[in-house]
Write a structure and sequence with these properties.
It is a single chain. The chain has 383 residues and is α/β, with parallel strands linked by helices. It folds into two domains: 263 residues, D-Maltodextrin-Binding Protein, domain 2 (3-Layer(aba) Sandwich), CATH 3.40.190.10; 102 residues, Periplasmic binding protein-like II (D-Maltodextrin-Binding Protein, domain 2). The chain has 14 helices and ten strands. α2 packs across α10, α2 crosses α11 and α6 packs across α13. The chain is globular, with a radius of gyration of 20 Å.
């Protein structure tokens, strides 16, 4: 999926990612309950991201950097995407073992025939915003009518249409403007309300100089609609696995639990030390500046923690709300995301619950009860 940066991987970035992957492949002792084979060799695993290396994925890169995957007997290759790879397609095609993708997108793929299961709902809440100027008169989804509404497309637009449906607004009542993965069109006045993520595009605005004042823009300059506060909110970054392999392959089941344990450790590390996690992500190939990257890790943590039932547990009410929104959403061409309820196999708490139980005595804060976000001061251009 897109997740938001307009920067593409440079050769240097790819080299950094490769170095990080090699670090994960370097061997070492495996922890208790690891999925290493009888000879102590690490089990190879491929994880498909939905975008380029950035703070949105800090927990996975931390799990590599800190050796958490190795501790669980895994040799994990993290595969970025600059929009050229659809994560759920790569998983359904057997190219990777696990994938990170938004729930509504995968629901569409499941209805189209993909056999995939959400095994860990890492983001517990939506991070999507619609941002307008403070004096625009746009303060809610109900104000979209007759306006130019920005969207990246590529399946990232369904929260907009689900929220509009809840307000009784037909998609034809607005002009959908395809925006790039930045805020340039909004700043230039071509869009009335632009799509943004809490952890990325919104920060891009706050690290931009207001030409009228010579100072950085502030939150007071904008009217922000948070989709988490609407009926259109949908679950986002989840870890997806191959349903058939989960049902029939004992080794894959064991690997799945080991993989999730390492991921939990990675995200707990990012919550405990976001500064270190942001530095790890920059080393992994992120093209963002240090203040922007730290903002991104901090805001991503807010979407994960607290997780009252344990990190990764799929909340039934949030799942049902996502499905309801996906069923109600109709885009500007009249297309539906899904037309029927997904199968029961579309999500399972079985594997993340096993991972949480295995880590119960680890001393890790598995619910985020002690989590507290930090204060991040953005610098011009994210530097």
């Amino acid at each position: 999926m897109r997740h938001s940066t307009r920067r593409m991987l440079t050769a240097a970035s790819l080299a950094a990612v490769g170095a990080l992957v090699l670090a994960a492949c370097s061997g070492g002792s495996s922890g208790s309950g690891s999925s290493a084979d009888a000879d102590g060799d690490l089990t190879p695993v491929k994880l498909q991201l939905q975008w380029l290396p950035q703070g949105q994925f800090a927990g996975y890169f931390a799990a590599v950097d800190q050796g958490f995957f190795e501790e669980e007997g895994l040799d994990v290759e993290i595969i970025p995407s600059g929009g050229d790879i659809v994560p759920q397609d790569a998983l359904a095609n057997g190219d990777v073992d696990y994938a990170i993708a938004w729930v509504p997108k995968v629901l569409g793929s499941i209805e189209a025939g993909a056999d995939l299961t959400n095994i860990a709902q890492i983001f517990q809440r939506s991070g999507t915003l619609q941002v307008a100027w403070a004096d625009s008169g746009i303060t809610s989804v109900a104000d979209f009518e007759g306006k130019k509404i920005g969207s990246w497309g590529f399946g990232n637009e369904w929260e907009i249409f689900a929220a509009m449906a809840a307000e009784g607004l037909d998609a034809s009542t607005v002009e959908i403007i395809t925006q790039d993965f930045n805020m340039n069109a909004f700043l230039q006045g071509d869009i009335d309300a632009a799509q943004a993520m809490t952890y990325n595009e919104y920060a891009q605005l706050l690290e931009t100089v207001d030409p009228d004042t010579g100072e950085l823009y502030t939150p007071e300059d904008f009217a922000v609609i948070d989709y988490e506060d609407t009926e259109g909110a949908m679950l986002q970054d989840a870890i997806w696995a191959d349903t058939e392999r989960l049902e029939s392959d004992t080794e894959y089941q064991e690997t799945t639990v080991a993989f999730l344990k390492a991921v939990i450790k990675g995200w707990a590390y990012a919550a405990e030390d976001p500064e270190a996690a942001s530095e790890i992500t920059i080393a992994a190939g992120s093209g963002w500046g240090p203040s922007h990257e730290l903002w991104m890790v901090n805001e991503t943590n807010k979407l994960i923690w607290p997780s009252p039932d344990g990190i990764g547990i799929i909340d039934e009410a949030a799942w049902d709300k996502t499905v309801a929104g996906a069923l109600a959403a109709v885009n500007e061409t009249g297309a539906h995301l899904i037309t029927e309820e997904p199968p029961a196999s579309a999500y399972s708490n079985e594997w993340i619950q096993k991972a949480l139980e295995d880590l119960e005595d680890s001393g890790l804060d598995l619910t985020g009860e002690s989590f507290s976000p930090i204060e991040v001061t953005l610098q011009e251009g994210g530097q």
